[in-house]
Write a sequence for this structure.
């Protein structure tokens, strides 16, 4: 059962900086131009710490920000309540969640549960930064079961707002919870739950590696801060939790040859000129046997042959609900390559926004593959079944920001 705690996090000092200028999206959803844009907004922007030129430069800047009280530490253990106001398909949403410490568990314990494959190289890079700075600059996103949304109702009419900031047409509100009764009710509830990782698998792997590293230095003291990491937790049952697919742009083959090669496994249901991609994708939501092939001028609705899909469903009853899994199976069967290989060779790009993928297709050769969405409950089915989704299967929208709360993991005692 996960042990969760309030903590004395570091927050940007709104008396000394514009919160608007120092926060940024998660580091793994931005490109080089976006990174440069956020770094240019402020010399204190979180990307100077999260994506530094070197880990040593991040450490020097971090020390300066703390010394100059640009970053200030809460003196009272706190849980941070977060509201994210956004619109999707012209509908208003408010996603609510909590930032708090969660004890680190090895995956084999089946308490904190991953849902997708990771790459070792990324973990190595993040580990060097964590080892040098001894701070975590952003949270991973975890999900837990709460069918009645009991935990979200604990803070009705809560008014201890620390800041409100608007970024990319989304409004983020961060509140401090220091009320012992609310904290006890929340942490007691979470004691009986599993946590499913939504975003941040590489961060979690890095934290596990760092815990082992620090334990060799400080001993196996369970109260030390490196045994925990700050997570952003939301109920998997919240209708405002949007789990979107991650689409692909491939440049390893011509689309005509690609469609010909996969013909023994598939049939083209429809072929038409491009129109509203979002509407097309949405019309096939929760279909594991459909994917959409996109060129610069046309759209192909591709269905996996029923006999092939039946075999997949028998072999992988949970994973076959993911259209991406079914597609990658066909990719491997026909071209004898994996997506990991294509990623290493720079032959695949990932997009959460189908329109952005479409724009990219206008500027380079290749073809896109778009996938219908599935329910977040499918993620739960897959993880409980002990399976892992392919890399970048999901895109939880929107993302919380980097730099909301910064947590120290330098070897101090929490209690």
């Amino acid at each position: 059962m996960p042990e969760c705690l309030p903590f004395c996090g570091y927050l940007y000092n709104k008396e000394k900086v514009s919160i608007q200028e120092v926060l940024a999206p998660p580091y793994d959803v931005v490109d080089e131009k976006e990174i440069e844009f956020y770094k240019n907004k402020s010399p204190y922007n979180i990307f100077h710490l999260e994506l530094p030129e070197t880990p040593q430069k991040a450490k020097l800047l971090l020390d300066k920000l703390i010394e100059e009280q640009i970053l200030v530490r809460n003196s009272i253990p706190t849980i941070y309540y977060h509201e994210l106001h956004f619109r999707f398909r012209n509908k208003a949403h408010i996603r609510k969640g909590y930032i708090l410490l969660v004890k680190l568990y090895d995956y084999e314990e089946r308490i904190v549960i991953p849902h997708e494959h990771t790459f070792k190289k990324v973990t190595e890079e993040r580990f060097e930064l964590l080892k040098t700075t001894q701070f975590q600059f952003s949270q991973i996103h975890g999900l837990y079961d709460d069918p009645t949304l009991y935990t979200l109702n604990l803070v009705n009419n809560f008014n201890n707002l620390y800041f409100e900031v608007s970024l990319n047409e989304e409004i983020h509100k961060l509140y401090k919870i220091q009320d012992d009764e609310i904290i006890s009710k929340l942490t007691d509830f979470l004691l009986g739950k599993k946590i499913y990782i939504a975003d941040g698998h590489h961060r979690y792997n890095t934290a596990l590696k760092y815990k082992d590293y620090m334990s060799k230095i400080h001993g196996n003291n369970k109260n030390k801060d490196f045994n925990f990491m700050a997570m952003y937790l939301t109920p998997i049952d919240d209708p405002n939790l949007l789990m979107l697919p991650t689409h692909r742009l491939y440049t390893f083959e011509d689309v005509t040859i690609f469609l010909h090669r996969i013909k023994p496994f598939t049939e083209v249901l429809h072929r038409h000129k491009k129109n509203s991609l979002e509407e097309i994708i949405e019309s096939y939501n929760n279909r594991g046997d459909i994917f959409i092939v996109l060129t610069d001028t046309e759209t192909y609705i591709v269905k996996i042959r029923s006999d092939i899909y039946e075999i997949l469903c028998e072999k992988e009853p949970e994973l076959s609900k993911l259209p991406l899994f079914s597609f990658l199976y066909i990719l491997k069967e026909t071209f004898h390559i994996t997506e990991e290989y294509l990623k290493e060779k720079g032959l695949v790009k990932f997009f959460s926004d189908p329109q952005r993928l479409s724009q990219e297709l206008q500027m380079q050769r290749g073809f896109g593959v778009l996938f219908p969405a599935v329910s977040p409950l499918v993620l739960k089915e897959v993880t409980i079944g002990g399976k892992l989704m392919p890399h970048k299967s999901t895109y939880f929208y929107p993302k919380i920001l980097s730099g909301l709360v910064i947590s120290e993991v330098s070897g101090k005692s929490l209690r």
